[in-house]
Amino acid sequence: MRLARAFDAASMLLLTFLLVTSSVNDAAKRERRYLVFPPPDGTATKVQLVFGLGIPMEVEVSTIVGYVMKCNYNLPYNASYLSEPYVRYQRSTAAADAIDDDEAHSETGRALGRYEIYKMLQSAKPCLLRAICELAATPLNASRGLTAELMHIFLTPSTTTEAYADPADQEYLAAERIGRLGDSCTRAFPECPVNLLDYVSRLE
Predict the structure, then answer these.
(1) Residue 142: pLDDT band by 50, 70, 90 thresholds?
(2) Signal peptide location in the record (predicted)?
(3) Which one, of 80, 189, 84, 85, lies nearest residue 132 by Cα?
């Protein structure tokens, strides 16, 4: 009986010793911890918010027009990410400043310009030109809300003063001028048989 108790006590001590040494070894091998989000291994970790709205249209074919707005936000993976990237402290060196500036500029993206968006719609260029012309001839009622304002901004090239990405981009301003002068947009752009604005607006 006494031998069994001594064996139990010795095995308990040995087990406790093994557990303590294994936990010390685990602590030495433990990886660096991150708060909430994983580190971006080459790419930024982002959260996306997507808002969508589908509107059925009254045309012969069953059609729905959809509007989508997507917002991307980089997630913090380090406490220094939450501080301002352009704040410099007295101990910072010139080399470290240059690296920080490069990182700060690489994370901020550049917005697409008007003519870059128009170029994406290159396959529908005649209809885009006609829509610009038609909108200039009969502007949308601005009191109709956000959608009318966004369409006005998108289809009125003169609302921005950005430089042309290509000399051919002057066609968009020419289409707007044709509409403002009251010329026939149908004759000016015969390649497009339909007025796209008829699908989303009506004359009153």
Answers:
(1) low
(2) 1-22
(3) 189
